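Q: Hi! First time doing this. I have a protein sequence and I read that you can turn it into a structure. Is that right? Here it is:
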Amino acid sequence: MERMPTVEVMEHIAFLGLGRMGALMARRLLTTGHPLTVWNRTADKVTPLVEAGAAKATSPAEAVREADIVITMLADPDALAAVADVIADHLPAGSHWIEMSTVGPDAVHQLAERIDRSVTLVDAPVMGSSDKAATGGLRILAGGEVGGVEHVLTRLGTISRTGPLGTGAALKLVVNSAVLGGVAVIAEAMRLADAFGLPEDVARSALATGPLAGAAARAFAEGLHFATPLAVKDLDLAADAVHLPVLETVSGQYRRFAGTGDIAEAATRIRFAEGKPVKITIDSPASAPQPLNPLYSQVARVEQADGSALLFLSGQIAEGDTLAEQTRGIFEALQALLKAHGATLADVVNIRTYLTDIGKVREYGAVRREFLTGTPPTSMTFEVSKLFRPEALVEVEVVAVTGPRTR
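A: Yes, that's right. Below is the predicted 3D structure, encoded as structure tokens:
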């Protein structure tokens, strides 16, 4: 009897979260022939993958409705929770959810409690940077029942089974904490070498072949990317689990330089931190909403000698038909701008508001209090006849402080 040829079933994959790593991982899956639907909060990041053959979803719910496998690769627990709020009731029965973000085990267990029992959840954060993501060379730390998605994960890298659900997320924090601590130690070792007057190549060569060789390689790396604010996030998650005095100190060092790009850049700043003049940087963070008026930058960061930084956020306006809608959009934008610099609205110390109708200050204040829930910052409110966009009813600018300080 003639044997029928084996037909490989290519499951429909939904990929949510197209940051630097997520976009490369999604493209890797697309090249394997899997039907792929992609979604990202910043919609323009979807375009390159759609042009390569992926389907575009306008919402997380739309992305997952027909999916056999859902993959999330998001920035932090808050971003994951926001997506989970949308997709939990739309996951098809019998589907698999692979959670690959670095969010810690608590966030993974919270997901498990929210989804239908027929949906299999796997936590599978990855080790490796963008070079490994592009070539399928990641190390995947997989917790839970991996068998149903192993063939997909192997397209992205080598699987290390870690145990029950949540152990992959836990081990990722353990490994990241060790790497980040090692990179900071290498940075300070180079500062010590500078103080002794050792040639840089001699010190670097010795560190590169010593017991912290891996950390040294990462501290001196070029062309890779591990965003410093994400490093701070990972160390904060670790510190939430248990008292880690050494890593809390390391986290403070990274927090000082959260406005830098890769952790290797932060390491350089740690090395040369003392004896350097205050630095002023001006930017419009790519991770935050871009200004409706593109003719100005959004943040001026003034770094102080004690490791703190003043953040001056330029006047923000937002779209919306009502004052409340515009105010809410403004404070959401301010949150994103502050987050890009390792800060939150709780770090705001001064706020200026410009209203075209001072009679609506109570309506504005009601929305503002939704976002500023702690001790109110110093504040000034002005009435102006008009703002630079005729439809704008309100504009807000703030000053925030990050890093070591007393309140």
